[in-house]
Amino acid sequence: MSIYFKGLSSINGPLVAIEGVENAVFDELVELVDDTGHTRLGRVIEMQGDRCLIQVFESTDGLSKNNVVTKLTGKPIEIGLSEEILGRSFNGSGAPIDGLGPVFTEKFMDINGRVINPVSRIYPRNFINTGVSAIDGLNTLIRGQKLPIFSGSGLSHNELAAQIVRQAKLHGDNDESFAIVFAAMGVKHDVAAFFKQTFIENGVMDHVTMFLNLANDPIIERILTPRFALTAAEYLAFEKNMHILVVMTDITSYCEALREYSSSKEEVPGRKGYPGYLYSDLASMYERAGCIEGSEGSLTQIPILTMPNDDISHPIADCTGYITEGQIVLDRGLQQRGIYPPINVLPSLSRLMKDGIGEGLTRADHAPLSAQLFASYARVIDVRNLASVIGLDELSKDDQRYLAFGKLFESLYVGQGNLSNRNIFETLELGWNLLSLLPAHDLDRLDREILDTYYLPDKAITFFKENSPELLDPALFETIK
């Protein structure tokens, strides 16, 4: 039942208060109509006795204590959903912005999601191919996983997000339904146009649903945008049995909006001014990913955040790292050297990778190959540090070989470019070609049977001579047998 109230008791930024309220419900949808007939939406965020605090989604400009009629609708904020949302674009409040008219609604769902019984969760096992070797080969994305990308201001995370949306697909010849929900929070107009144009030009827009909150949109809308997107994803995944990948950028903009909102409520700030409930608020979004018993679909998340001052210990990155199952870390030094995507594989991690790769899933040699590539690249970093002290000329032949390996690894394996879409077998073969340039006695993460099958130095040298001769110094590899 709807209840109407005349007037407001206070106005403070995006927050207004009314008094004499009974039976208001937390997160209840509110309509505020001014004397010009303009309707603003809001939600109940706090009750203090008979005083009700309301968060207004739009600007409160033009509102006064006497010219507003407030309607408590008696229901939460909902979004109308059907399979028609695929291929459509919405603003941060769930309204269509693509000029194609309203969406035919099959079902309304509360944007705050439904509580998932942990017992009903199914452990994620299946692999999603992003076409990016540094992710697929070394930090594999698994269906139902939440795998964030830690970036920095000015790094190419937007390009990487667009590439993942263009290229992501289920592994193998799979006839299961796959779609992507893309949510952008606080992005500039040119960034929003870049994403939309990229998806249209590459012919993937028909299986993408976009939610766009622009930098000049209200901050309160920014707080709702990921919840509208995740509710749409839950509907497609758990009602329509589709496999959904949710890409959200930028979580830092969301958290800054949350900090501003918390400040307007005069809450006691926590670390660096962020509210003390930052962790639980992020968890309320991230934990909506997963696979649920009784549904054939899955919901996978790739949240993207820019670390202020490239500080991985910043509260946003810190909380995200605790909640999620790993991270993909972008490196400023790699980008400055022209390597794209600039993924630093050593601090990157996918905690669910071990259960989604191997025989019957990707290939039997995937796990040991990945471990050896990590170990070999870690030695490259050690050798570079040593060379900075004693000089390149003083390095041993093996150390110089590792430097050459590191150059090829970063330029070809990691730096594949934004137009390259590799399947998992191409990624694995490239990894073996790289390892075959190193002495066999150094490859201690690989057993003899695997080495006998895949360790082929002559084939590797031929491959690099044909594909990247400018990066290869043949003299360094003449004795590898």
Ordered list of secondary-structure elements with their pairings:
Layout: E1 3-6, E2 10-12, E3 15-19, E4 28-33, E5 39-48, E6 51-56, E7 69-76, E8 78-81, E9 89-91, E10 107-110, E11 121-122, E12 127-129, H1 133-136, E13 141-142, E14 149-151, H2 157-167, E15 169-170, E16 178-187, H3 189-201, E17 208-214, H4 219-239, E18 243-249, H5 251-264, H6 278-286, E19 291-292, E20 298-306, H7 315-323, E21 326-329, H8 332-336, E22 349-350, H9 366-390, H10 397-414, H11 424-435, H12 448-454, H13 457-467
Global shape: elongated
Beta content: 15-25%
> What fraction, in percent, of the residue positions are helical?
25-40%
What's the architecture of the largest domain, going by CATH?
3-Layer(aba) Sandwich
Q: Pairing-aware structural class of the strands and helices?
A: alpha/beta
| Cα-to-Cα separation, first versus last residue | 80 Å
Q: Measured on Cα atoms, how large is the radius of gyration?
A: 26 Å
Number of domains: 3
Total beta-strand segments: 22
**Main pleated-sheet profile:** 8 strands, mixed
CATH class of the largest domain: Alpha Beta
In the CATH hierarchy, the third-tier topology of the largest domain is known as: Rossmann fold
Number of helices: 13
Mean pLDDT reading:
88
Spatial strand sequence of the major β-sheet: 9-17-16-18-20-14-21-22
Low-confidence stretches: none
